[in-house]
Amino acid sequence: MNFLTQIPVHFIDTVTPGWAAVVVFCATTLGIIIMLYTLGFLILRRLPYQSAFSTFEHIMKKTGDVFVMAITAFAAYFFSVIFKDAFMVGRPVAYTFDLHPLLNLSGYGFPSSHAAFYSAIAVTLFFTNKTAGYIAMFLAAVVCVARVLAGVHSPADIIGGIILGVLISCLIDFVVEKLNDWKTV
What confidence category does residue 109 fall into, taking pLDDT thresholds of 50, 70 and 90? Predict the structure, then answer.
């Protein structure tokens, strides 16, 4: 068994109830905070004043950014579910009999849908604003690590999900940039 498939069984077996609650919070609820942070940033950020129609243009820009974010995140989730059914790699509990995960989940584990979804959000936000993107990337990394520590994913599941989310985010950003270039011609 190598690093990419190992689960921290020792951590899970010795975790205190307080740390277990923190890990479960980070593995589940922190994702909602990432989505609220991203939506709040995209909607409430200040855009430079350019013309008498700036207010209307800002509403259109912010609405477009939220739409692109939603499409990117849901595309990452959709393709992760498709790949889970294609690869059929079980969750760590299926391979490690002495594992007692903090969350009881069924189904396949590779690639992680949570990792794909939140990394797609973070990278898309990074394309909009670097600082806000770094914050979202950090929070997404915390979710990913927590899902490994909770025993529901192996590091390989997480890495696969991150790669999927980043690739989809880059592809959609490329398409949006090409459409914007085409629109200005």
Answer: confident
